[in-house]
Amino acid sequence: xxxxKAFGSTQALCDVNLTMEPGVIFGFVGANGAGKTTLMxxxxxxxxxxxxxxxxxxxxASQDNRRRIGxxxxxxxxxxxxxxxxxxxxxxxxRGMEKSEARKSAKExxxxxxxxxxxxxxxxxxxxxxxxxxxxxxxxxxxxxxLILDEPFSGLDPIAVKTMSDVIREQARExxxxxxxxxxxxxxxxxxxxxxIISHGKIIATGTPTExxxxxxxxxxxxxxTPLATIFGDLIADDETYHDKVVSEFERRGKNA
Length: 257
Ligand code: ATP
Known about the structure:
The protein is of the alpha/beta class. The protein has helices at 36-44, 63-66, 84-94, 99-112, 128-140, 158-173, 185-191, 209-216, 228-235, 240-256, and strands at 3-7, 10-16, 25-29, 55-56, 59-60, 69-72, 146-149, 178-181, 194-199, 202-207. The strands form three sheets. The protein has a six-stranded mixed beta sheet with strand order 6-7-8-3-9-10, with helices on both faces. Strands 1-2 form a two-stranded antiparallel sheet. Strands 4-5 form a two-stranded antiparallel ribbon. The longest helix is centred in the last third of the chain and has 17 residues, at 240-256. The two termini are 25 Å apart. It binds adenosine-5'-triphosphate. Adenosine-5'-triphosphate binds at residues 7, 10, 12, 30, 32-38.
């Protein structure tokens, strides 16, 4: 049984199944309100599902093994008036690191993410993009076993986008399963090794970018690879009737692929 969750009369998730695997970067795409954040919160135990269960290595997820997941929440949630270095050490310690190890890891990540010059500044004095780098450092600080990143690219400049993509790829190469959401379709296309498309609380397609291209490609466009951005663009179109048409066409082609 997949994960289901309703808020009053809104069915935010409906029997959602998603398997994260070591080294796989799962790009999570869907329109505003499709259910991405809700699923990520349920994975992290911030929200309870109505039915369905989160399994980690085939066992029911406990708060203890959820602590080993690096999480970048959409609401961000750092301390505005705490210094960056101090903040990183604090988050590493509450995830079980010794002080000296926490300080070493904090030093490595602020250097890697190019925020060392802000180490002694309060978070609130940093720009949005630099706060986002701090948020990524917090997700990575305590040697996580998996990463859940809710819109990690939003508000980043091109240099920070490159750093974020490099770090995500690096972590996947080290064997971490990763799930990230984004509305930037080119980034989903470039960074993901697998993509899940969610629409109105249901996963309507999953696969590698190549598999999804094959499914979505119209016979007359066989010579020209369809950019994934075009497919996703159609799926997240504002026009609901059009959106529903694209979804059912996508499902039909999926079944016939
Ligand atoms: P976005 O791309 O805008 O971040 P999303 O795919 O992350 O969207 P969710 O935030 O998961 O979407 O929302 C899914 C649905 O659940 C929406 O209809 C939203 O209004 C509803 N919802 C989410 N959280 C709550 C809540 N705490 N109370 C009531 N409804 C909620």
